[in-house]
């Protein structure tokens, strides 16, 4: 059994992680920390865990995190980097679901997240946990940076095209929509029911924190400079991301459907849908899947890829469990086989 601790289990990503870990056959959940909720039963805050997790929140300073095999951080950006060095020194493996170790450049981190990095010496070691790209590196990692939700959906959609040099890397567009759970569990006017319901709006058009993460991953795939126009939108649903991706072909169109099918043929959590399909966010709700469809409208020079994920599962907690499975030599699908929820 893997002895697991979770730091920061009070947000939407945290409770989704706890839901998955509670059902995992190889996990012994030892500690869940929260400074604000210390002493409170998890099931009092999250009634869906009643009968599944019999733990109370503990203060991080009072939890036996160094006694765990693995610690997940489901904390705000800037928290994990304060604690990770000591855990690694104690022999504990770490998966960070925030952004502390996603960017390789500490100057870029400081620019986008507004604070200096506390342990920049670990940025080169941290493995970016997109299994469809870095599976073997994740297996041997002691520190994994779990990808963001938008970056997961966007990268999986663009990767086959860029890896084969079929599209112009300097002319990529990602038009993305997310449910309000992606904004977190904090109180905010913009995510109130009366504000978010029956409404859709773009945000972060001038620059979004996930853009440098996406560009970093796509640049590694093509070994060329990448220019990306990335526009996120908030939609009136709780879960889900829908990314509509546009790219310009560099020459004559290849068999794009076969390209995508072959690229992801052995990937358990990427589903390339039939020619002409239009994947829906509800088809991945609660599941660790990315569903893709590739289109070549009117045989022109533009390729359109549709990519859908659940932002809390394949975009966060599910992908983190997938990475844990790889790090501990388990079948990576362990604990993640549930079908999506409908309706």
Automatic annotation (TrEMBL):
Its EC number is 1.2.1.38. GO terms for biological process: L-arginine biosynthetic process. Pfam families: Semialdhyde_dh (PF01118), Semialdhyde_dhC_1 (PF22698). Pathway: Amino-acid biosynthesis; L-arginine biosynthesis; N(2)-acetyl-L-ornithine from L-glutamate: step 3/4. GO terms for cellular component: cytoplasm. Residues 3-141 form the Semialdehyde dehydrogenase NAD-binding domain. Keywords: Amino-acid biosynthesis, Arginine biosynthesis, Cytoplasm, NADP, Oxidoreductase. The keyword ATP-binding does not apply. This is N-acetyl-gamma-glutamyl-phosphate reductase. Belongs to the NAGSA dehydrogenase family. Type 1 subfamily. The active site is at residue 149. Its main location: cytoplasm. Catalyzes the NADPH-dependent reduction of N-acetyl-5-glutamyl phosphate to yield N-acetyl-L-glutamate 5-semialdehyde. It catalyses: N-acetyl-L-glutamate 5-semialdehyde + phosphate + NADP(+) = N-acetyl-L-glutamyl 5-phosphate + NADPH + H(+). GO terms for molecular function: N-acetyl-gamma-glutamyl-phosphate reductase activity; NAD binding; NADP+ binding. Transmembrane segments: none annotated. It comes from Thiohalobacter thiocyanaticus. InterPro entries: AGPR, AGPR_AS, AGPR_dimerisation_dom, AGPR_type-1, NAD(P)-bd_dom_sf, Semialdehyde_DH_NAD-bd. SMART domains: Semialdhyde_dh. It is found in: Cytoplasm. It comes from the Bacteria. The keyword ATP-binding does not apply.
């Amino acid at each position: 059994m893997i002895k697991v601790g979770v730091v920061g289990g009070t947000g939407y990503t945290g409770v989704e992680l706890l839901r998955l870990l509670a059902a995992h056959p190889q996990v012994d959940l030892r500690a869940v920390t929260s400074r604000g909720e210390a002493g409170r039963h998890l099931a009092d805050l999250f009634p869906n865990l009643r009968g599944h997790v019999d733990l109370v929140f503990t203060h991080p300073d009072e939890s036996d995190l160094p006694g765990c095999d693995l610690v997940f951080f489901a904390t705000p950006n800037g928290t994990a980097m304060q604690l990770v060095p000591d855990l690694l020194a104690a022999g504990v493996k770490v998966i960070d679901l925030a952004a502390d170790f996603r960017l390789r450049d500490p100057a870029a981190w400081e620019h986008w997240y507004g604070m200096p990095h506390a342990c920049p010496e670990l940025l080169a070691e941290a493995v970016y946990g997109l299994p469809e790209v870095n599976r073997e590196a994740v297996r041997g990692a002691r520190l994994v940076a779990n990808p963001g939700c938008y970056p997961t959906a966007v990268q999986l959609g663009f990767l086959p095209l860029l890896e084969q040099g079929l599209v112009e890397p300097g002319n990529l567009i990602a038009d993305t929509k997310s449910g309000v759970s992606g904004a977190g569990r904090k109180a905010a006017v913009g995510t109130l029911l009366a504000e978010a319901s029956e409404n859709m709006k773009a945000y972060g058009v001038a620059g979004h924190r996930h853009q440098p993460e996406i560009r970093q991953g796509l640049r590694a795939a093509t070994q060329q400079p990448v220019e990306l126009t990335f526009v996120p939108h908030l939609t009136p649903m709780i879960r889900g991301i829908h990314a509509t991706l546009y790219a310009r072909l560099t020459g004559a169109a290849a068999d794009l459907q076969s390209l995508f099918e072959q690229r992801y043929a052995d990937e358990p959590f990427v589903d390339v849908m039939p020619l002409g399909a239009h994947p829906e966010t509800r088809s991945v709700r609660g599941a660790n899947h990315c569903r893709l469809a590739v289109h070549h409208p009117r045989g022109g020079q533009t390729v359109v890829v549709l990519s859908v994920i659940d932002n809390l599962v394949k975009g966060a907690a599910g992908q983190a469990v997938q990475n844990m499975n790889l790090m501990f030599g388990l079948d990576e699908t362990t604990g993640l086989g549930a079908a999506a929820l409908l309706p």
